[in-house]
């Protein structure tokens, strides 16, 4: 896959920021209505009233635009998870909330903005940088919870921390990864509770 870069906004003035925002707003609306695959850069240019060449001054490709919109969608899930965790005092409860909220937030995106969700699924399928960064941030949240749990002696300390993070993430992944989520609807109601309980038992000191 070719590496995608997005033109840095820091090197541009206020007007250029406004143009980038207009492109993203138009793209989000088109992707929501028609889907990522069916929307072309020409469609976006026509909607905004710019030439296609002018849009390419700000984004090198349609995928670069999709990357930014995908990042916004995945950030919503991450923010929901972070907020839920911040409302808990003890690491075991933080972990339970991470499972529960991650699934609920992913499902909400799937059902309320299905065509935008499809961008996230494309990102996961094609291993976009956006998807890799999202996985990294989720693992970082999990790592922080585990460290807190070990410090408070809620969790065992014998297993290497990086190994524990990866194992738990693999348990959560089918319900957080946009590509895999759509294949796990049958277990959505019970999975967060059952899986978090199983993980917490395995973490007992």
Automatic annotation (TrEMBL):
Gene3D superfamilies referenced in this protein's UniProt entry, alphabetically: Tetracycline Repressor, domain 2 (1.10.357.10)
The keyword Transcription appears for this protein: yes
Point out the coiled-coil segments of this chain.
Answer: none
* Cleavable signal peptide: none
Q: Which residues bind DNA?
A: 40-59
SUPFAM superfamilies per the UniProt record, alphabetical = Homeodomain-like, Tetracyclin repressor-like, C-terminal domain
The UniProt GO MF terms for this protein read: DNA binding
- This protein's record includes keyword DNA-binding: yes
Pfam families hit by this protein: TetR_C_27 (PF17935), TetR_N (PF00440)
Domain HTH tetR-type, by residue range, is: 17-77
UniProt keywords, alphabetically: DNA-binding, Transcription, Transcription regulation
Name the InterPro entries for this protein: Homeodomain-like_sf, HTH_TetR, Tet_transcr_reg_TetR-rel_C_sf, TetR_C_27
Database matches in PANTHER family: HTH-TYPE TRANSCRIPTIONAL REGULATOR YJDC, TRANSCRIPTIONAL REGULATORY PROTEIN
Tell me the protein's name.
Answer: TetR/AcrR family transcriptional regulator
Q: What is the lineage of its organism?
A: Bacteria, Pseudomonadati, Pseudomonadota, Gammaproteobacteria, Moraxellales
């Amino acid at each position: 896959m070719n590496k995608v870069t997005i033109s840095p906004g820091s090197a541009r003035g206020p007007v250029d920021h406004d143009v980038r925002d207009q492109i993203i707003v138009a793209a989000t609306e088109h992707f929501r209505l028609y889907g990522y695959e069916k929307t072309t850069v020409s469609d976006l240019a026509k909607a905004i009233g710019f030439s296609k060449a002018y849009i390419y001054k700000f984004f090198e490709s349609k995928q670069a635009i999709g990357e930014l919109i995908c990042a916004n969608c995945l950030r919503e899930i991450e923010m929901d998870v972070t907020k839920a965790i911040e409302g808990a005092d003890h690491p075991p409860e933080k972990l339970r909330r991470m499972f529960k909220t991650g699934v609920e937030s992913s499902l909400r995106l799937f059902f309320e903005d299905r065509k935008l969700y499809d961008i996230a699924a494309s990102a996961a399928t094609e291993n976009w940088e956006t998807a890799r960064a999202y996985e990294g941030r989720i693992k970082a949240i999990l790592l922080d919870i585990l460290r807190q749990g070990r410090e408070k002696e809620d969790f065992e300390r014998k297993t290497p921390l990086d190994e524990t993070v990866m194992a738990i993430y693999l348990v959560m992944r089918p319900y957080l990864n946009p590509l895999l989520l759509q294949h796990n609807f049958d277990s959505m109601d019970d999975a967060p509770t059952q899986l978090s309980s199983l993980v917490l038992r395995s973490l007992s000191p």
